[in-house]
Amino acid sequence: MNLNPGSSAANAPTADTPRMDMTPAVPACHANGGPRLLLVDDEPRLLSSLYELLRDRDYQLVTATCGSEALAQLNRLKFDLILLDLRLPDMSGHQIMDFINERGIEGDVIVMSGDVGIEAAIGALKRGAYDYLRKPYSREELLKTVQNALSQRRLAQDNARIASQLENSEKMYRYLVDSSPDIIYTLNHEGRFTFVNDRVQQLLGFSREELIGKHYSLLVHDEDRERARYVFSERRGDTRASRSVELRLKCGGDAMGGGHERTFSNTLMTIALNAIGVHQPEQEPRQREYFGIYGVARDITDRKRAEEVISYQAYHDILTDLPNRMLFKDRLGLAVIQAKRKLSELAVMFVDLDRFKLVNDTLGHVKGDELLQQVALRLKECLRRGDTLARQGGDEFTIVLPELRDRQDAKAIADKFLESLQQPFDLDGHEVHISASIGIAIYPGDGESIDELLRHADIAMYQVKALGKNGHSFYHNSMLDVSHQKIALEQSLRKALEQNELEMYYQPQVDVASGRIIGAEGLMRWNHPQRGLLSAGEFLPFAEENGLMLPISDWMLGALCRDLLLWNAAGGDAIRLSLNLSPQYLDRGDFFEKMRGALTRYGISPAQIEVEITENICIRNPQYAIEQLNKLCQLGVSVAIDDFGTGYSSLSYLHRFPIHTIKIDQSFVKEIHDEHGHYPVILAIISIARGLGLHLVAEGVETALQARYLQSHGCTTMQGYFYHRPISLSNFIGVLQQQAGDSAPLLHAPAPQLADVAIQA
Description:
Blueprint: E1 36-40, H1 44-54, E2 60-64, H2 67-76, E3 81-85, H3 93-103, E4 108-113, H4 118-126, E5 131-134, H5 139-179, E6 183-188, E7 193-196, H6 199-204, H7 208-211, H8 225-233, E8 242-249, E9 262-276, E10 286-299, H9 301-315, H10 325-342, E11 345-354, H11 356-363, H12 365-381, E12 388-393, E13 396-404, H13 407-422, E14 425-427, E15 430-432, E16 435-443, H14 450-466, E17 471-474, H15 477-498, E18 502-511, E19 516-528, E20 532-535, H16 540-545, H17 549-572, E21 576-580, H18 583-587, H19 591-602, E22 609-613, H20 615-620, H21 622-635, E23 638-644, H22 651-656, E24 661-664, H23 666-669, H24 680-692, E25 695-698, H25 704-712, E26 717-718, E27 727-728, H26 729-741
Parallel strand pairs: 1-2, 1-3, 3-4, 4-5, 16-17, 19-21, 21-22, 22-23, 23-24, 24-25, 25-26
Antiparallel strand pairs: 6-7, 6-10, 8-9, 9-10, 11-13, 11-16, 12-13, 14-15, 18-19, 18-26, 18-27, 19-20
Helix pairs in contact: 2-3, 11-12, 17-19, 17-26
């Protein structure tokens, strides 16, 4: 009778056979938490008795009454324990065990047999049976054997699982250690390598086999060996067992470093093991024994190089490779300390390049940078050993000259600077000439602190610029008073806009044929509360230097438009207004919009406005200037070249730029002393204007002789003291009204006698 409902030949149980639950086809020990057992016996009553004996012990029980059923169940399910009868109708238990071994089927086998021969038992044990029970066996013996077998199986499975975990853990550890970007190593108590990972081959070029058993000093740079000996021999415990140190290690031929030493940050930990041994009664049974060192060496060569680069760049100018102002102040401070100790003098120089801005604007910043690099090389060649040349910023350089014998040493070096800069500079085919203004302060007479010496050298340098540039000057206390006056003037100028102290004056332009006023040039004045009326030349240069030209130009544009409304109402609507335009104002992107907005807001015809520019505007940024001036011309505003002939005169820009008027500079007019003389520059300018069809205005006409000469050679529009001085708006309106009412024009009008400079850079 078949007692296995899960087999292919399963029949319903009889009245003598208990019903057995064989349903779950899942791995052993996991279906309901209990182990799975296969019971194999061809005697139904013994099989039923065995089933009843085990059914209440949380086991999953499956039965088989013959060998074929047993093999079918073994192929279908996994079993923790197989209780096997040796004598079956279709095959022996030994054959079933051979099947289990051949297939590698897991599960322990307890053989139950009534055979009294020793051969059956030996055959079963040889095939790996856990135990051999002879029938009849006692109930207790069976239960104990089954329990022991299952317990041993559980222990074996736990051990196998732990061993597998340890093996995987060791593989992972090995992988992580060998894949680490750092060198991981251990040293024994003698400082010899007991372990090192594969990274040492890539970083240092030494194989693991070359290092195992070797002393760590084999790798350490000679200069770092003493520090390494101290660190590696130190015995630390507890929380102080870990420490870090930077060492340079040698590289082999195959290393990434190519045979050079590399810098490593070594994190070390002293290894101490708890040792238990046999001791004499009076000795401690437990002690800590020093075992060695576990270390991680990280390659920080790239980081150290980056730190060196960052440190260098923090104290050096990237463009010229000279010390920057931070390093210069540090060296100047050391030089001052040394001079104080030796009771000697030192010099501080402040060097500012003349005309550098012009080169930078005309040739571009790239060429300007090349010029600064060439200047730095020339200045360095003029210095003594121990002198320091630094770039302060822009086109400014500073020099400290320690251990001066007298001032002549500083003067000699300053003369060398000026001489070396006189030679032309070649900027990719462009020959450039520059000079320098040099201020010199001497310690301790001109100051004892770093800032004081630099400030006084800077003041002396500006004194040179004020006197015409291209020279050097020693600081003197009198210069400080002038400097303070400039600062006070700058501060007052900032307040002048807020307090409405600025005013526009107008110098008429006369048509000498009719004697009538046909135009006027707008000139700025400052009603200074203490110094009285100041001309443009006395304050506009400060505005240019201190960034005030833009707000001042904005004010001027509004003031001119308001004044134009008044003089138009007085009958001057046919008179053209000339306004001087600062290059800074033209470079500003919104200048055109400001001009158009002002003319629209005040209802003024653009044809009544003429913008005066200097030749420098034409060479600063030619293409941009052309675009801006073309916009003005399209609006209806005309353009004049002011001070023609004093700058970089070129006929080419008269063709390229939308020019309507040329103004002869007063420096040429002043040279006219003979009515019948020959003045080729003036004649050339008049010829150019006539040939190009341009309107011509002569500035600075002060005598009747000058007026007759200019008129006789074709210049018919003039301005100057011979006709009118610059006058206030009210006086100008009075002149216009008198001209409108009189048939004979008024050629002279009283006004303050002030020198004047146009509003320009």
